[in-house]
Amino acid sequence: MTAMYPEYAQWLRQVRSSMKLPKAVKLLFDQGRLYMSPVTEAHSEADDSIRLQLAEQLGGESGLHVTRDKGVLPERDGYTPEPDVLVVDAGALGPGDAFVDQKHVHFVAESVSRSTVGQDYGRKLNQYAARGIPTYLIVDVLTGECVLYQAPKGDEYTSAVPYRFGEEIDFSLAGAAVTVRTDFKKIR
């Protein structure tokens, strides 16, 4: 997997370390531009909750692994997305891997922040569909809603089901039934 790192990976690590960014800020690189996005408490709690819920339900027997913040390869249109939460094939990531091939990704989730709302509902939505990722969950801490996208076709998803915070979302990941409780906090 190491050979698949985009050329900018080492450079981006150097930039991150030289900027001495606080952990509450995420640095994103897209089409030659650097973006800084704050990671709010609501964002972190939603991401942690989804990861824990899915890890508990999928366990070791499903052949799936729950992770976070890994780049999805190959680069497409100058972009390598880094979802907040991913479910990938077990064994697709080694200890030193920061990127995973799209063919191993079954689920991605993004928690919206004020600076990424357009990306999460726009470019990332199209990118994940075009990559054939079966399920994409947007957690919108700004509106108190989630949207579950499934059944990608081309660069769009053919199914989009909205949920309000507090509702349960039931779906299947590689044949395993899962439920995500959406008792997340909304940013006021």
* Mean of pLDDT: 85
Unreliable segments of 5+ consecutive residues: 1-5
- Described by the principal axes of the CA atoms, the overall outline is globular
Q: Kindly provide the radius of gyration, computed on alpha-carbon positions and rounded to a whole number of angstroms.
A: 16 Å
Would you mind describing this structure in some detail?
This protein has 188 residues and is an alpha+beta fold. The chain has helices spanning 8-19, 41-58, 117-130, and strands at residues 25-30, 33-38, 64-67, 71-73, 85-89, 99-101, 105-111, 135-140, 145-153, 156-164, 168-173, 176-181. The strands form four sheets. Strands 3-5-7-8-9-10 form a six-stranded mixed beta sheet. The chain is globular and about 40 Å long. The N and C termini lie far apart (41 Å). The relative contact order is 0.16.
Defining traits:
188 residues; alpha+beta; 37% strand; disordered N terminus
What does this entry show, briefly?
By secondary structure, this protein is of the alpha+beta class. Helix content is 23%, strand content 37%. The strands form four sheets. Strands 3-5-7-8-9-10 form a six-stranded mixed beta sheet. A two-stranded antiparallel ribbon has the order 1-2. A two-stranded parallel ribbon has the order 4-6.
